[in-house]
Amino acid sequence: MTTTVRVNGAQPYDVVIGRNLLGALPGLVGEAKRVLVVHPAALATTADAVIEDLRAAGYETFGAEVPDAEEAKTAQVAAFLWGVLGQADFTRSDAIVAVGGGATTDLGGFVAATWLRGIKVVQVPTTLLAMVDAAVGGKTGINTAEGKNLVGSFHPPAGVLCDLAALASMPKHDFVAGLAEVVKCGFIADPRILDLVEENVETLTDPVRASESEVLAELVERAVQVKADVVGEDLKEAGLREILNYGHTFAHAIENVERYQWRHGAAVSVGMVYVAELARLAGKLSDEVVDRHRSILTSLGLPTTYRGDRWERLLTAMRRDKKTRGDLLRFVVLEGVGKPTRLEGPDPTLLVAAYAEVSRDDSSTAIVL
Ligand code: GLY
């Protein structure tokens, strides 16, 4: 079954979720003459199918291969794509289709945002993380030597195509890391997500079974709906959108300290337990909800602890996080499931005490790399 989630805003768009959906792509691209399909080498076959479909629908199509994962998010790769667009005479009424994981969709979105001050982009995410997070909501960007996503733009796509069949070939640990963002949506806004994950752990930890299951389709739809509700109201992160960063302040610090060798979802998993502990210590969250964080994430094989000898480095990284305002550390915390709030400038003793709670045990059996 195919479902569609509408994302509201200045220019509303649809996120189409289902299986074997390529036929739906021309409908999302809409009016355009030329289309550039951006993809990593590993997805050349998928990109060829996309190009074939677009050509059959009457578009003049071009393909551009970019490096895999974060290697794609550089000024050099963006400049290469601007060159391709220039050589092919792309005008304001042409479009980019980005096929790949979050790095490819961030890059494709950024190049679309900047070419002629903005052309259409349609995102075709092929990883779980990109489907439920990166490709939806209009954040686009590249990295610089100083940090990740420091250059970018809010540029909502014209449409997003989530073909669940693409997930069957994902490595298990990458797939499960993507589930951390799904669980995040459960804790901040949609408790039914948590029930569904708890009831279907075996299916969800096998990418082939999951990709064919109704439960994954429902989870992706629910997670996308959570994101759509938030970004439809607050595209530019003036307030509400911050809740999507639940667990991310501590997660970004881990990623920084680990020199980006941890999977994002694994870091978010520990980060959610950290803020849950922080909220408990601040008197906002019950033991029961904190325990639920640990049990659900552990059942998926995600880490919930981090080494105990990195506090100073983590604190420095958290202070540098771009969500920090002035000198005050700000965290999205919960007062209950689906009840996010902010904790600004918490007492340093609470920050250290929460760290002690996540650095108690060894997490060597969980997915980190
Ligand atoms: N990944 C968080 C956001 O899109 O705002």
Give a structural overview.
By secondary structure, the chain is an alpha/beta fold. It has 2 domains: 3-169, Rossmann fold, CATH 3.40.50.1970; 172-360, Up-down Bundle (Dehydroquinate synthase-like, alpha domain), CATH 1.20.1090. Helices cover 46% and strands 18% of the residues. It is built from 15 helices and 11 strands. A 7-stranded mixed beta sheet has the order 1-2-9-6-5-3-4, sandwiched between helices. The chain has a two-stranded antiparallel ribbon with strand order 7-8. Strands 10-11 form a two-stranded antiparallel ribbon. Helix 2 (44-56) links the parallel strand 3 and strand 4. Helix 3 (75-87) crosses helix 4, helix 4 crosses helix 5 and helix 5 (128-134) packs parallel to helix 6 (172-188). The longest helix has 20 residues, at 214-233. The protein is globular, with a radius of gyration of 20 Å. The mean pLDDT is 95. The structure holds glycine.
Helix fraction bin:
40-55%
Uncertain residue ranges: none
CATH superfamily of the largest domain: Dehydroquinate synthase-like - alpha domain
Class inferred from helices and paired strands: alpha/beta
* Beta-strand content bin: 15-25%
* Spatial arrangement of strands, main beta sheet: 1-2-9-6-5-3-4
CATH class of the largest domain: Mainly Alpha
Count of beta strands: 11
Briefly note the CATH topology name of the largest domain: Dehydroquinate synthase-like, alpha domain
Distance between the termini: 34 Å
